[in-house]
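Page 47, continued from p. 46.
Same chain as before, 175 aa.
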Amino acid sequence: MYLIIFILSCILNIVLLVLYIHSRNSYHLLMRKNLQKESKADMLVDQVTLDSAISDNDKEQKLIQTLRELMEQQQLYLDTELNIHKLAKAAGTNKNTLSHTINKCFDMNFASFINSYRIREAIRLLDNTEYRNYKIEAIGEMCGFGNRQAFHSAFKKEMGITPTHFRNISKNMAK
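Result:
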């Protein structure tokens, strides 16, 4: 009787180990795919800028350049209270023009546009060993998210995994 229980226990442990390894490998693959997606998104933004330079619409080209400067150099996305009105004012345009340009040139809405920059910053912080002891909620706030739920939802939508899983995978890949 004990032998049967022992054998069943061993088989169950082997099955669980195989499932764990498969799950871990799937997360690693998903993380790599999402990082490649992020790289492709950066190339798309560069292509949009290049295409816009060729375009006859100088206002749109200037607005795209201004948006990139505001987001990449001034990091306006870190402001938890950033909205389309504030960004339009900072860019020297109105909300309708800004929204239209983001939709047309970046193929996303305002919230997705802002969150893409916030998620990039979150990935940088979650991958950085200096921030390993920070809570996920604190990382989200540092990236401009107003609350934990908004951070988790946006991160999972963009990356396909939660920030906690991303951090764990990042730790394992660093080892």
